[in-house]
Specification:
With 222 residues, the chain is mainly alpha-helical. It is built from nine helices and five strands, in the order αααααββαααβββα.
Amino acid sequence: MERADRLEREAGPVSDRLAHALARISVALRHHVQRGASARGLTPTQGEILLWLRSHGSATVGEVARGLAVTAATASDAVDALVAKKLVRKQRETQDARLVRLTLTARGRREAARAEAWPAFLGEAAQLLPETEQAFLLTALIRIIKTLQDRGQIPVARMCVTCTYFRPFAHAGSARPHHCDLVDAPFGEAYLRVDCPEHEAAPEGLAARNWEAYLARSSFPG
């Protein structure tokens, strides 16, 4: 028993091992993204911008920079390269000529669709887990994302929990406990979205109540 206690003490807190595990996954993701981008003649940042525009439809350089947590200069340089490659189009707003919006060209949309497949290996690995474990893992990651967002360490994601249409545990006790008012339909824990294109940010008070209800009732095994 003494040896077991010593082993566990030396292992340190489980949070440290979780951090190391997530770091290893991030290394694998970065490797796959870099390999995929290089094969297409892109940088990882350029690929991320294509994916951002595919998801958001259009954006300014400033919005892209904030969404990807890069500097305005980095985003601007990458956008200029994408414009030169005819993957992104710049258009001035008719209401305000000082404002330039970015959209994908037809070629850019095709390239973005290819870029979306770069991290697919993670989903393939997650599919090997039982469905209940996938749902629990998603819940845990949503909690981690919230903490990082609250600390200003990552950009705010368009998650269900922060959406004005989200009703947590409106159908408590069922297999589909949550409700989306946008489509007026219930859905299960495993179908919570981390980046929904139809997301509409909830007012601060509603978002806080949604988080409180969600965090209080979302559960884990054991």
